[in-house]
Amino acid sequence: MSRAGEKERIVAIGAGQAAAQLAISLRQGKFADEILVIGAEPYLPYQRPPLSKKFLTERPQPEKLFLRPENFWRGLNVDMALGVAAARVDPRNKTVTLADGRELGYGKLVLATGTRASALPVPGTALENVFSLRAIADVHRLRPALDAAERVVIVGGGYIGLEVAAVLRGEGRAVTVLEAEDRVLKRVTAPAVSDFFDTLHREHGVDIRLGARLAAITGDARATGVALADGKELAADVILLATGARANDELAQAAGLACQDGILVDEFTSSSVPDIYAIGDCARLPSRRYGRLLRLESVQNAVDQAKAAAAVLLGEPAAYDPVPWFWSDQYDVKLQIAGLSAGHTSYDIVGDPAEARFSTEYRSDGRLIAVDAINDARAHMLARRHIAQETDPTDAFALEGAA
Ligand code: FAD
């Protein structure tokens, strides 16, 4: 049973982007009681996007990634228990047990446990020199291996795989990207956008293999290469697995929360169990706008869903139904995505891909649902407004003040 004084305490599990925003928004909303953030990693909340971009090659100190310095959290009176995982949640007694045995009571509990790299069901993934990239600790392992590497194989032609390919080409390393589908970024973009990035990477010297299914990672203790399903073999000094992520929802499942690769929440961030909420990458939320459940992996969602949870906890609930947005940096190209293009029935290219500045507008039965903007921040910002207001850029008078 939670003890007196712990009844009002808000505990967040996971000290990432979402939990950080939650704590900030609670204090901005004048929440006066205790806030405790529990984080398995030994670092203050930090931003992950640079891990596959500049941070990888510039190798600054982890502090550079921190969202806020230590004295900020002290000033905000937010307690951080870092370097220790939450091992168990007991919703009946409203307690969290930490891996070091400590038991803490909560009034409200917010799960913000993020994701981890999804496991690839092929032999050899546990060999030395096989990596994934989700956290600072991964960079600390990966970086020395990269420094000694000439040939790098990246498994997965999604955002993270392609961003790392760009960084490594900048360092002059030989990079092969294996993509099982017939084009890169297939899950998230139209063929024209895939073609643009495919060409961009090939022009920078990346060896992109499409339709390339990984069968095994070869080597004894140490990985020496990959074997593909078609029988081809490639030598490699480092292999990076970038094939997506899955939600850290085991803690929630064990506590009896409804989960479906992600903790199921409603539009007010509430889980299926009273006084427990979930936000950020680990949550699966209902989207009225897109007519389905979504699990979003983006800074936008971590921040905005955290704000929505804080509003609920402050007694000012407002339904959360975001226009998701995301960005990716590859070489000198900035891709900005507004909305979700999955399920589109048509798309139009606006601008000229040959000039590396264009947008792809996706519609579902005539309704604008997403826009990929390449090197065009204005198109991206307008797209976010159009999608939110359910207007269309082809209607010149649709957006007030848009010109
Ligand atoms: P996280 O920031 O992942 O934090 C979750 C934290 O919970 C982790 O520190 C984890 O260790 C901790 N945790 C898990 N289980 C427990 C436990 N039991 N006890 C205690 N702590 C626990 N998004 C963009 O919008 N643009 C980008 O360009 C972009 N690039 C990215 C590049 C990389 C390499 C990665 C990995 C992600 C990128 N993202 C990007 C995604 C973005 O970083 C995430 O969406 C965001 O960090 C999600 O925030 P979160 O708080 O939900 O989870």
Task: Describe this entry's structure for a reader.
This protein is 23% helix and 30% strand. With 403 residues, the protein is of the alpha/beta class. The chain folds into three domains: 4-116 and 246-313, FAD/NAD(P)-binding domain; 121-243, FAD/NAD(P)-binding domain; 325-390, FAD/NAD-linked reductase, C-terminal dimerisation domain (Enolase-like, domain 1, 2-Layer Sandwich). The strands form seven sheets. Strands 3-2-1-7-19 form a five-stranded parallel sheet. The chain is globular and about 60 Å long. Flavin-adenine dinucleotide (FAD) binds at residues 13-19, 38-41, 48-49, 51-52, 85-86, 112-114, 133-134, 160, 248, 251, 280-282, 297-300, 302, 326-328.
Helix content: 10-25%
Q: Structurally, how many domains make up the residues?
A: 3
First-to-last CA distance: 58 Å
Q: State the secondary-structure class.
A: alpha/beta
Task: Detail the poorly predicted runs.
Answer: none
Name the CATH class of the largest domain.
Alpha Beta
Please give the order of strands in the largest beta sheet: 3-2-1-7-19
Q: Count the DSSP helices.
A: 9
Full CATH superfamily name of the largest domain: FAD/NAD(P)-binding domain
> How large a portion of the residues is in β-strands, by DSSP E?
25-35%
Instruction: Fill in the CATH topology of the largest domain.
Output: FAD/NAD(P)-binding domain
General form? globular
Mean pLDDT across the residues is 95
Bound molecules: flavin-adenine dinucleotide
CATH architecture of the largest domain: 3-Layer(bba) Sandwich
Give the tally of β-strands: 26
Round the Cα radius of gyration to an integer and report it.
22 Å
